[in-house]
Amino acid sequence: MPAQAAFSPRLLQAPLQEFNLLPSRSLHAGRAQALAHAGMPPQGPAALAAPPAVQRALHRRWSAQLLAQLGDHAQPVLDLSHAALPVALASPALLGRVARDAGVALLGGYLRRTIARDAVLSARESLGAPALDWARHGAADVHPGLADPGRWTQSDLGEAADLLGAGVIAQSWQDAPAPLKLRADWKLPPRAVEDTAVRTASALDPQGARQLCLQLLARLDPAWLSNFPATR
């Protein structure tokens, strides 16, 4: 077994600084309306096409307005030992992959029972062949699947998986200190955070949801996970 790289907090300085001081950089597009009065594009910060210097200035302004909404909870997150931090600091792209895989795991029971040809083809089109294969052959290791997936299988399975998975992520830091939780919530679609039925659909408590997310991070990006002392 190869030796693990030594933990160095320097590797987390950039993502932690962005998380603490520039949350608009990872703001979910569904939350852009919160800063529409400050000139944020309706599609969110990612839609901005401007010279880098202009982008930096705009993000400083947007982030200052976001942080002002936190009031007494705007103090920076400095404790690297919290178990939710590997999930909370993950890039939006990595968080999206965790959400998709978590959602597929929750739909896994339904997908494993699906045998009708048209339904299988529809699931493959929505989720992709690799995700469908994982749902059938690996996802049960992290979650048995929803006991009653009916409401989630009536529309596009990809969208359902993404929302369910975002709910698991929101649940994973539900018990974190407010400065961490509130910043992390901005990275998720509002419904995943605000709709209790979505956030708790997995029937996992925060510790269980966190464990599921950490298992998925270990599968998707073990190098990222190894940066955190609590996971070593």
Order of helices and strands: HHHHHHHHHHHHH
How many β-strand runs? Answer: 0
Q: Helix coverage percent of residues?
A: 40-55%
- The N- and C-terminal alpha carbons lie at a distance of 15 Å
- Unreliable stretches covering 5 or more consecutive residues: 1-7
Instruction: Give the tally of structural domains.
Output: 1
Mean pLDDT: 89
Structural class estimated from helices and strands: mainly alpha
**Envelope shape:** globular
Number of helical segments with 4 or more residues: 13
Notes on the protein architecture:
- By secondary structure, the protein is mainly α.
- It has one domain (9-231).
- Helix content is 54%, strand content 0%.
- The chain has 13 helices and no strands.
- It has helices spanning 13-21, 52-70, 85-88, 92-106, 108-113, 117-127, 129-137, 157-172, 178-185, 190-194, 196-199, 206-220, 222-225.
- The longest helix is centred in the first third of the chain and has 19 residues, at 52-70.
- The radius of gyration is 18 Å and the shape is globular.
- 37% of the residues are buried.
- Residues 1-7 have low confidence and may be disordered.
